[in-house]
Amino acid sequence: MELRYSRVVLTVLVLSGFSNPLTAQAAAPEPQQAPQQPAQDEQEPEAPVRIVGEAGEKAEFDAWQEVERSGSLSKKAELATRFLESFPNSGLTAFAHHVLADAAYQVNDVDNFILHAEKALLELPETPQLLAPLAYLYSERRQAAKAREYADRALLLLEKLEKPGKMTSSEWIKQRQGLQADSHYALGRAHLEFWQQSVGSPKELRQAVEHFSKTLKLDPEHAYAAFRLGFAQGNSRNPKAAVAAYARASILDSPAAERSKTYLERIHSILQKARAYEWAGKSIEEILEEERGRLAAERAEKEQELARLAEEIDN
User: Fold this and answer.
1) Tens of pLDDT along 150-184?
2) Would the CA dihedral through 273, 276, 281, 282 be positive or negative?
3) What confidence tens digit (pLDDT) does each residue in 22-45 have?
4) Quick check: helix, strand or coil at residue 55?
5) ∠ CA(184), CA(186), CA(192), 5° rounding?
6) Which of 192, 180, 191 is closest to 216 using CA atoms?
7) How many whole angstroms separate alpha carbon 225 and alpha carbon 176?
8) Pick the CATH number of 1-8+47-124 from 1.25.40, 1.10.10, 1.10.3470, 3.40.50
9) Separation CA 90–CA 297 (nearest Å)
């Protein structure tokens, strides 16, 4: 949404000091009469109408411009806080909350991110940059219904959202695909929660696998998606797919790596007894080395895809 400044039209007042005192005295009401309506010069000027995306007065507009011009996100957050204190009824408050949400996200302050993102969405409901990470966080907090709602909204908006003017095409594609990946992850996590609530519905498990797989296609290095996919595939009685997913999660730098390797070793140990198991004669390290090769190939493919999509947008 483009920010605009609407000038406030002030009511022109007739000053009572310039009125004729004799005329005023003659026109004064008798004591027993009902009080008259306040004269025009005694009435308060009407407050400006609040419009989302617009500043109501010049001081408000200038204060927001200071937020916009600030270099660092932490400084923007400081100025946005001051802006909210000075202009609590501004049409730009949602944008100030957006800045504060971004700043909280940058320092992993989850509670404040959720607080300010939700406030921003009250007036900026079509903002996938807030909806997708909120969906991710709600899914991790096992608020499955809310995670699914926000993720679905984000994915619909991202399909039609145009590239912001200040971003390069490659930056925009990376951001959009990252938001799509987080949205699919949130949906996969939500379906895992629904699966547990429904006492093992195969449909929910299939949908979880589908969304985690889409996440990894968009972002091959999404460690938590790989970890959750391993869990979902294992419970789908697809141990070979579980080994592949856990292997991917094991080679990525994340808190899930150690647990993933433990589950990988456990499943590998069981499958070694099966003659048809393709990795029966390979060690865990050999499996992980093969997975590193696949990851390198997928990274190269993503780079080529990024260049192709950016060229399509620029042309």
Assistant:
1) 999 999 999 998 888 888 999 999 999 999 999 99
2) negative
3) 222 223 334 444 445 555 555 565
4) strand
5) 105
6) 180
7) 17
8) 1.25.40
9) 50
